[in-house]
Specification:
D-Maltodextrin-Binding Protein, domain 2; 23% strand; single chain; two-stranded parallel sheet; 272 residues; 11 strands; 9-stranded mixed β-sheet; alpha/beta
Length: 272
Amino acid sequence: MKKLSKILLFCLCVSFACTGLAFAADTIVIKGSTTVLPVAQASAEMYMKSHPDVNISISGGGSGNGIKALIDGTTDIGNASRFIKDKEVKLANEKGVYPVPHRVAIDAIVPIIHPENPVNALTIEQMSLIYQGKIKNWKEVGGKDKRIVVVSRDTSSGTYEVWAKKVLHKAKVTPRAQLQASNGAIVQVISKNSYAIGYIGLGYLNKSVKTIKVNEIEATVQTALSGTYPIARPLFMFTNGWPKGAVSDFINFVVGPQGQEIVKKEGFVPLY
């Protein structure tokens, strides 16, 4: 009986030890930009294959929400397709959070239309007037005599922030614009509407939509990296202070050779 009790006690100790090991696994929470999402997801999948002791949870919601989650302490990494704002830094510091940016890729914001739309190029000024609602018909920019359907990202989006700065020059988007919560949603809308215009990150392009040249310059890896394409921007992962442990190791993976190959595969521009 004593021997049986010792065996049971040993098994119980082993069970608790294994449970302890399971709980000891690192968990990384990532929230934010839908533009950075494909890079984060593909990188996480590859990273977890070689690091089975690390669990990575990823969700979108926009750059603003990613930075807010970092400030609130509900994420380890806040993905953003724009740089952090001064007011966000101030709020973070008030809560004892010190955001550190890690540039992980370069992106081009690409205006898109339906493949049947004959327009091939627009200037920054033309797109600005379209998004302000001052140019309302495609015939005004060389297209058919059809009303333009303006599709935009919502204001929590980093892509919207960059578009507002580089295209709208901080003017307001027409109240008639259809607001979408993600790059993927914009692709869906444009692919089903012959007279709509939208904008997305380079990595979300597919054959269901058509790209427009901006100031006669096509958005490519080369033009984004050289800076000749006028609507290019870096993509970031933000951490609270300099990252440590698994978070640091994951970010080093993303900016390293393997991670940058993933960036390229996902249709974005690698850092080098």
